[in-house]
Write a structure and sequence with these properties.
117 residues; mainly alpha; Helix Hairpins; 67% helix; homotetramer; 0% strand
C-alpha cells in the first residue's frame, strides 16, 4: 500500500440497462411478471405521471418552482419520478425498445421538424 | 495516420446526461425554455403517457404483445416512449433531480417494503 | 288535505346544472375559486381519471368486471367517478360549455363518421 | 291545424340517462360493446382527459381563460369534453354506477370534511 491518491473517478451512478435488469429481477423474485403486460405497464405509467402532476396541480408558478426546497415535497417528487421511470423502463424491456436511442432519434427528427429560426 | 484498427469499443449509445444536455440546447435554441416550468412539463409528461396508453387501449393482450411486429405501430411506440422520456428528463433538469439515482433509491426502498416471500 | 296518495313520482335525482351550482357554492364558500383556472381544472381532471384507472390497472378482465361486488372497491369506484365528474363539470362552468349538449352533438357527428355497416 | 302557438317550453336538452342509452345503442349497432370492459373504458377516459389537458398545457393563464373566444379551439374543447363524458358515462353504465348521485354524495362528504371556516 502507498500514499498515492487514486485518480478521482466520478461515481457514474446507475445506468439505464442496470436499472432495467434490477427491475426485472425485482419483479421475477415476486412473481409479478405476469402482471407486466404492455397494456398494464402503459396504464401504470399514466397513473404515476398523474401522481407526479398532482404535486403541482394547485401550485402557483412560484410555488412550483420552489417545490424542491421543502424536504417532504422534494422526497415526493423524487419518489414519483422514480415510479414513472420504473414503468417506462419496464415497458421498454417488455417491448424491446431502447428508450435512450428512441429519444436520440426523436431529437434528430425534431431538429428537422422545428428548424432554428 | 496508420492502418491500425481501433480496439472494438461497443457503441454505448447516448447517456441520460447527454440527452438532458441536448434537450436543453434544443429548447434554448428555440426560446422554448420559458414554457418549461415544472407544472407545464408535468402536464406534458402526463399527456404523452396518455398518448402511449392510447396505442394499447382497445387491444387484446395478444395484440398488445405483438405491437412491435408491425413497423408502423412500432414506430409510434418508440415515438411516444421518446416523448414521455423527453418530458421526464426536462422536468428532472429543471428540478435538479437525478432520475437514475431516484429510481435506484426507490428500488432499494421497495426491496424492504415488499420482501421476497 | 286529504288521504289520497300522491301518484308515484320517481325521484329523478340531482341534475347536472344543480350539481354545477352546488360545486360553485362549495368552492365559493371556501375561497377556492382562485385555484379553479381552466388549466388547473383540466390537470385535476386528468389526475382523477388516473386514480380511477389505478383501481383497474392490475386486475384481470374477470376481476375488473367484478369490482362492484366488493363494498370497499365499489365505494372507491363511486368516489373516483365523482371526482372526475366534479372537475369536468367545474371546467365546463368556467368555460361556459354545456357538457350534455357537447356530448349529444358529438354522438351525432360520430353517427356520420362511423356509419352502421 | 291551427295558428295557436305552442306554449313556450324551454328545451331542457338531453339528460344523462338519455345520453347513456344513446351511447349504448351506438356501441351495440357497431358491435363495439366487446371492447367496453371497465379497464378499457377507464383507460380511454384517462387518454381523453389527457387530450383535453393538452389544449391548455403550454398556455399562459390569460390565454387559457380566453380559449373559448377562438372558434377552432372552442370546438376542440367541446369535442374533448364530450369524449371524456362519453367514456365516463359508458364506464358508469357497465359498472351500474349512477354518476350524478355519486357526485351528490361526494359533495355531502366533502362538506363535512372541509367545513366552511
Amino acid at each position: 500500500m502507498n500514499d498515492e491518491v487514486e485518480p478521482a473517478v466520478p461515481d457514474a451512478g446507475p445506468t439505464v440497462p442496470e436499472l432495467q435488469r434490477r427491475l426485472a429481477e425485482f419483479a421475477a423474485a415476486r412473481s409479478w411478471q405476469q402482471y407486466h403486460t404492455p397494456k398494464n405497464l402503459a396504464s401504470a405509467l399514466t397513473v404515476e405521471a398523474g401522481e407526479l402532476l398532482e404535486i403541482f396541480q394547485w401550485l402557483t408558478p412560484e410555488q412550483a418552482a420552489d417545490v424542491m426546497s421543502d424536504a417532504r415535497s422534494a422526497h415526493r417528487v423524487r419518489d414519483e419520478v422514480a415510479d414513472v421511470l420504473a414503468y417506462l423502463l419496464q415497458l421498454c424491456t417488455v417491448l424491446e425498445v431502447d428508450p435512450l436511442r428512441a429519444l436520440a432519434e426523436k431529437i434528430e427528427r425534431n431538429e428537422s421538424r422545428f428548424p432554428v429560426p
